[in-house]
From TrEMBL:
<dbReference type="GO" id="GO:0003677">
    <property type="term" value="F:DNA binding"/>
</dbReference>
<dbReference type="Pfam" id="PF22745">
    <property type="entry name" value="Nlig-Ia"/>
</dbReference>
<feature type="binding site">
    <location>
        <position position="117"/>
    </location>
    <ligand>
        <name>NAD(+)</name>
    </ligand>
</feature>
<dbReference type="Pfam" id="PF14520">
    <property type="entry name" value="HHH_5"/>
</dbReference>
<keyword id="KW-0479">Metal-binding</keyword>
<dbReference type="Pfam" id="PF12826">
    <property type="entry name" value="HHH_2"/>
</dbReference>
<dbReference type="GO" id="GO:0005829">
    <property type="term" value="C:cytosol"/>
</dbReference>
<keyword id="KW-0520">NAD</keyword>
<keyword id="KW-0234">DNA repair</keyword>
<dbReference type="GO" id="GO:0006281">
    <property type="term" value="P:DNA repair"/>
</dbReference>
<dbReference type="InterPro" id="IPR001679">
    <property type="entry name" value="DNA_ligase"/>
</dbReference>
<dbReference type="GO" id="GO:0003911">
    <property type="term" value="F:DNA ligase (NAD+) activity"/>
</dbReference>
<dbReference type="InterPro" id="IPR003583">
    <property type="entry name" value="Hlx-hairpin-Hlx_DNA-bd_motif"/>
</dbReference>
<keyword id="KW-0436">Ligase</keyword>
<feature type="binding site">
    <location>
        <position position="140"/>
    </location>
    <ligand>
        <name>NAD(+)</name>
    </ligand>
</feature>
<dbReference type="Pfam" id="PF01653">
    <property type="entry name" value="DNA_ligase_aden"/>
</dbReference>
<keyword id="KW-0227">DNA damage</keyword>
Length: 683
């Protein structure tokens, strides 16, 4: 091994520092400090030294941003702290409603400040730094787990490979050993246009919008291709797993300032607002000015400035209560209706759809829009050939909002909903008081396809490999006529389907067999009874622990369950009175599906201890996932809640527990480890 002179090491460190500072000034501050030619010369010098002394190469060196070897794939990584989505508001009135809701959860708040930031239309990332060095970059994914794309993240110049910790004044510096920064990566509009021009020239299809282009870029296996795309990044959240946010910064505004000091690009158009009126003014200003920005924004993110108040309010099962995404007014555009078709859904609902000349809306190409139901069609008086105004707000399905009747051609014909199902040809019905027209033929191919897709879905029987294309083939080839037929399929039958093969067929047979062990609550949800979602199914099966008990229940018995209204109760009651449904239940029982909720013996003292107790699960447990821990608690008659309150009996705590732990400590709620929970349910 060759000896390395101290001055060589020193020069390498100097070059890294110089290049990192220059990169920060250029990409984050937008204020170049050295000429490009000088930067290139220094970069080449560092590159030559590292080639000569490869043992001195470090992960945070500027030369290590772009890897030479393409990745073979991306692995799934569980987030230390879930990446929640935000509740949407589409106007100032809805913003005020959000403000009223959080105030009901935290009464007595008078002088409240709000932090407003532009909502960047890109892709969220979670970046993990250990001892100041970037070690992991993960996509949002489903909010619980995402893909590890660290190799690609390193190519984004506005993401520092090493944090600037030297000038940080903070009481708890030890907390900065492991931190997570979240933000939005995006494509500037001029870069997006350049990419599309290049794709057009090379005969490739163009990206529909910058967000899609960003997502596609992040999933490239070759980081060199990602580097050429020149993605950008704005940081918006600093989180330290297991550490109270208030010990890092006094408030949200201070946290953004700290992010900037650490070396991140923070959106310069943020604003600290001292009233809801100021928030509304900020929103209205950027609703117009956003057209002059170099990137796409689809709204404003409003957060309560106080981190203590954020912790107190906590989260629903989907959103933080202390933040809202105030979306810009829906985009509208005129187009012509070429046809009006009717779609048949899983419940038999007939939905009219306007098929239109393609039009660009909210960054996407729109050629179909919902007309909702026959009442809406009559109200619009929409006809084939009409020029209409179509609207798309955020991710909402495009809809026709009005017809420009002054442009209507002669001899157009009013549209009428079909009296027979467009799929099976059977008569349709419209129940009194309902706006929806339905096909009630349980053998209808459209209903059958939807029912099976629902049955095999993740929250129901979770039959992996049974995708939409497989389901459609099975129904179209008349291989299945109900969900019960799935359990009579053979490997040979499945192997003959398009793009299946012997190996995939065997995996699918195994997945079907595995689904037989899913609990009664999952089966009830999978049956697809109107108004019965997964949480309602769980609630119902806690009261009626077998299908026989539920089938024999009266409407009043079902309605008596807390949280179950008369509409749900009547829907469940009617479903079990249908002879075809009774036959289906018997077939599924004979095939080994679970129609009894498995509970411990009544004599078990441990079971009695969990009965009537409410649990909340937080953090990452050593061996159980959160869902597994919740199922275990429910199996032994305990109740599970998503939020801490005075009615909570136990908080099951794992690593990187967040605000729930803080609130539990304030309320004096008992804490359990995974080991203690398992001990409680041990027989």
């Amino acid at each position: 091994m060759q000896s390395i002179q101290p001055e060589t090491k020193q020069r390498i460190e100097e070059l890294r520092k110089l290049l990192s500072q220059a990169s920060y000034a250029y990409y984050v501050l937008d204020n170049p400090t050295i000429e490009d030619a000088v930067y290139d010369k220094l970069y080449r010098e560092l590159q030559d030294l590292e080639t000569q002394y490869p043992e001195l190469i470090t992960p945070d060196s500027p030369t290590q941003r772009v890897g030479e070897k393409p990745a073979t794939g991306f692995t799934s990584v569980r987030h230390n702290i879930p990446m929640y989505s935000l509740e949407n508001a589409f106007d100032v009135d809805e913003l005020k409603s959000w403000d009223e809701r959080w105030r009901r959860n935290a009464p007595g708040q008078d002088n409240v400040d709000y932090v407003c930031e532009l909502k960047i239309d890109g892709n969220a990332l979670a970046l993990t730094y250990e001892n100041g060095v970037l070690v992991r970059g993960v996509t949002r994914g489903d909010g619980v787990s995402g893909e590890d794309i660290t190799q690609n993240v390193r190519t984004i110049r506005s993401i520092p490979l090493r944090l600037n910790l030297d000038d940080i004044e903070i009481e708890n510096r030890d907390a900065l050993q492991t931190i997570e920064v979240r933000g939005e990566t995006f494509l500037p509009l001029d870069v997006f246009e350049k990419i599309n021009q290049e794709r057009l020239s090379s005969g490739e299809s163009q990206f529909a919008n910058p967000r899609n282009a960003t997502a596609g870029t992040l999933r490239q296996l070759d980081a060199r291709k990602v580097d050429k795309r020149r993605l950008d990044f704005f940081g918006y959240t600093l989180q330290i797993p297991g550490v109270d946010d208030a010990s890092i910064a006094k408030n949200q505004w201070e946290a953004l300032e700290l992010l900037h000091k650490l070396g991140f690009k923070v959106n310069p158009n943020k604003q600290l607002c001292h009233s809801l009126d100021e928030v509304a003014q900020y929103y209205q200003h950027w609703d117009t000015e956003r057209l002059n920005l170099a990137y796409m924004t689809d709204g404003v993110v409003v957060k309560l400035n106080s981190l203590i108040l954020q912790q107190e309010l906590g989260f629903t099962n989907k959103f933080p209560r202390w933040a809202v995404a105030l979306k810009y007014a829906a985009e509208e555009a005129p187009t012509r209706v070429d046809n009006i078709s009717v779609n048949v859904g899983r419940t038999g609902a007939l939905t009219p759809l306007a098929e239109m000349q393609p039009v660009q809306l909210a960054g996407t190409t729109v050629s179909r829009a919902t007309l909702h139901n026959c009442d809406r069609v009559a109200q619009l008086d929409i006809r084939v050939g009409d020029t209409v105004i179509v609207r798309k707000a955020g991710e909402i399905i495009p809809e026709v909002v009005r017809v420009l009747k002054e442009l209507r051609p002669e001899n157009t014909i009013p549209f009428e909903m079909p009296v027979n199902c467009p799929v099976c040809g059977q008569p349709v019905v419209r129940e009194k008081g309902e706006a929806v027209t339905r096909c009630v033929n349980t053998s209808c191919a459209a209903i059958l396809k939807g029912s099976i897709e629902h049955w095999v879905s993740r929250n129901a029987l979770d039959i992996r490999g049974m995708g939409e294309k497989v389901v459609h083939q099975l129904v179209d080839k008349k291989l299945v006529n109900s969900v019960a037929d799935l359990y009579e399929l053979t490997e040979e039958t499945l192997a003959n389907l398009e793009r299946m093969g012997q190996k995939s067929a065997q995996k699918l047979i195994d997945a079907i067999e595995k689904s037989k062990s899913k609990p009664w609550s999952r089966v009830l949800y999978g049956l697809g009874i109107r108004h019965v979602g997964s949480s309602i199914a769980q609630t119902v099966t806690e009261k009626f622990d077998s299908v026989e008990k539920l089938a024999a229940a009266k409407v009043t018995d079902i309605e008596a369950i807390y949280g179950i209204g008369v509409e749900i109760a009547e829907s469940v009651y009617k479903w079990f009175r249908v002879e075809a449904n009774q036959t289906l239940i018997e077939r599924l029982k004979n095939q080994g599906l679970q129609f009894v909720e498995t509970r411990p013996a009544a004599s078990s003292n441990i079971n009695k201890k969990l009965e009537g107790k409410t649990f909340v699960v937080t953090g990452t447990l050593p061996s159980l996932s959160r869902d597994e821990a919740k199922e275990l608690i429910q199996k032994f008659a305990g109740k599970v809640s998503n939020s801490i309150s005075k009615n909570t009996d136990y908080l099951v705590v794992g690593e990187n527990a967040g605000s729930k732990l803080t609130k539990a400590e304030k309320l004096g709620i008992a804490q359990l480890s995974e080991e203690q929970l398992l001990e409680m349910v041990k027989q």
